[in-house]
């Protein structure tokens, strides 16, 4: 899938030790790109670790070929685990791993080790 990514706003949040990025996606003639594809492209652009990068949201605009969104790049994994809710962290994983985490959580078995593998 081809899409053009443009960073519209970037800032450092010193209280939380993270970089906050707002972006715009152009995806003419195709559907909205997958979260993981966009996350990987931003990681490549910013030279950041995928484990410390969280895709917060992607908003598609009806009838147009562009979307906008927000990404947070943390400096430390501890800050990411503290500030990001469980469902956002799971949403940033591949589908197979998401399903495995939800199954383990339902059975009340340990699942936190799966967040560290990517």
Overview features:
Alpha-Beta Plaits; single chain; 2 domains; alpha+beta; 4 strands; four-stranded antiparallel beta sheet; 118 residues; 31% helix
What does this structure look like?
- The protein is built from 4 helices and 4 strands.
- It has 118 residues and is an alpha+beta fold.
- The protein folds into 2 domains: 81 residues, Alpha-Beta Plaits, CATH 3.30.70.330; 33 residues, no CATH class.
- The chain has a 4-stranded antiparallel beta sheet.
- The model has no long low-confidence stretch (mean pLDDT 88).
Oligomer: single chain
Main β sheet profile: 4 strands, antiparallel
CATH topology of the largest domain: Alpha-Beta Plaits
Per CATH, the superfamily of the largest domain is RRM (RNA recognition motif) domain
Order of strands in the sheet with most strands: 1-2-4-3
Helical element count? Answer: 4
Indicate the proportion of strand residues.
Answer: 25-35%
How would you spell out the order of helices and strands? EEHEEHHH
Radius of gyration: 15 Å
Q: Fraction of residues in helices?
A: 25-40%
Count of individual beta strands: 4
Average pLDDT across residues?
88
CATH domain class of the largest domain: Alpha Beta
Number of domains: 2
Shape estimate: globular
The residue ranges in which pLDDT falls below 50 over 5 or more consecutive positions are none
CATH architecture field of the largest domain: 2-Layer Sandwich
Structural class, from secondary structure content?
alpha+beta
How far apart are the first and last residues' alpha carbons, in Å? Answer: 22 Å
């Amino acid at each position: 899938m081809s899409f053009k990514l443009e960073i519209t706003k970037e800032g450092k949040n010193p209280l939380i030790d993270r970089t906050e990025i707002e972006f715009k996606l152009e995806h003419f003639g195709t559907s909205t790109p997958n979260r993981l594809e966009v996350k990987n492209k931003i990681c490549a652009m910013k030279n950041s670790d995928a484990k410390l990068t969280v895709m917060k949201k992607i908003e598609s605009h009806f009838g147009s070929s562009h979307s906008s969104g927000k990404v947070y790049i943390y400096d430390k994994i501890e800050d990411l685990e503290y500030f990001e809710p469980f469902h956002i962290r799971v949403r940033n994983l591949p589908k197979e791993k998401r399903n495995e985490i939800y199954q383990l959580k339902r059975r009340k078995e340990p699942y936190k080790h799966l967040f560290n593998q990517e």
